[in-house]
Amino acid sequence: MKSRKKPDLEVKAYGQQLDSFDLDLVVQLVIMLGRELVKEDVDAEDE
């Protein structure tokens, strides 16, 4: 079991990539939802 540290480092690096990916995804979702809400507000004002 000499190679125990290496997988841990790989998992940690993968976890960091996943965190930054999730953050980007959340930001994109928030922007998309914000645009949808703005569209609905504009449509409601037109009526």
Describe this structure in words.
There is one protein chain. This protein is mainly alpha-helical and 47 residues long. It has a domain at 20-47. The protein is built from 1 helix and no strands. The longest helix has 42 residues, at 5-46. The chain is rod-shaped, with a radius of gyration of 21 Å. The model has no long low-confidence stretch (mean pLDDT 78).
Shape: rod-shaped
Amino-to-carboxy terminus distance: 70 Å
Radius of gyration: 21 Å
Largest sheet: none
User: Strand share of the residues?
Assistant: under 5%
In short:
The protein is 89% helix and 0% strand. The chain is mainly alpha-helical and 47 residues long.
Topology, please?
Elements: H1 5-46
Task: Supply database-style keywords.
mainly alpha; 0% strand; rod-shaped
